[in-house]
Amino acid sequence: MTVKSGYSPLTRSGFGAELDGLDLARLDEAMVDEAMDVFHEAGGLIVIRDQGHIEPADLLEFVTGFGTPEGNEKYDPGFLVPGYPDVLRIGNTKENGRYTSLFIQADPPPLLWHMDDSFRHPQPVGSCLFCLRTPPEGGETGFAGMTAAYEGLPEDVKERIASIRTVHSYNHLNELLRKKNPHRPPLGEALLAQFPPIVRPLVARHPETGRKSLYLPLCHIESVEGLEKAEGEALLKGLQEHATGAAYTYMHRWRPGDLVVWDNRCTLHAPTPFDDSRHERLMYRLTFGGRQIAGF
Ligand SMILES: [Fe+2]
């Protein structure tokens, strides 16, 4: 079986690929390598459907081909799949009135496009979600391809932003979320000390492919080095508008058995809300580490 003969692009810019004919319960090294090649060629997003029969061990084995699974020590152990501490349950499932999965309700639009934890170093280089249960509507996940978006910029804009650096801050994100949800507490001293603001390039070079992409999780960026606040904000907002345009974005409507893997170094993602009072959603999530973006 050749994976490359069985995949189709998910956007007109070529960002994202859906792979056909893969059975993750019968993995071999060549399949993982080929899936990895498509993953990189497609700018860091693959979708594999109809895997409802696989076990957490299959998922773990597949994802290990992409990077080193990160632990979930910061989460309630009750949210982890028994025997698989690298696999976190995300959703709104409950037992005896207690959540058995990590529930984070998404805000209504505008979408909160982001790259996970860009405010820490090393950052997670990718994640995957595997769908077990999904509501009939809502609960989708949006993805935006930052390599294709960068390549689609006019040359004069590429030149203008070539050496710009931005300041990423967990506190900035938290304050932004607090505006929408005043019950969310401010970051305490310990978290502020653990996650001081860090500087990142606006144009990142991918360590595996060498391709450039926009590094633009706007909700994490508190300022642009060397620019006045308003000028920096206008620049980033304009770039985000371009980068989350139809050509570069894909909205995944989940079905049980879907697996989606994304590269956190060159894609944005965003959740959408669903009616959690009426419906259940359950995903397995694995996050993996690896080589960081160049220039950092
Ligand atoms: Fe995320």
CATH superfamily placement of the largest domain? Clavaminate synthase-like
State the separation between the terminal residues, measured CA to CA: 39 Å
**Overall pLDDT, averaged?**
95
Using the coordinates above, name the CATH class of the largest domain. Answer: Alpha Beta
The number of domains is 2
Unreliable segments of 5+ consecutive residues: none
CATH A-level architecture of the largest domain: 4-Layer Sandwich
Strand content: 25-35%
> Could you please say which CATH topology of the largest domain applies here?
Double-stranded beta-helix
Gyration radius, rounded:
19 Å
Oligomer: single chain
The helix/strand order is EEHEHEEEEEEEHHEHHEEEEHEEEE
Structural class: alpha+beta
**Overall body shape:** globular
Bound molecules: fe (ii) ion
Question: Could you tell me the number of beta strands?
Answer: 19
Helix content range of the residues, please?
10-25%
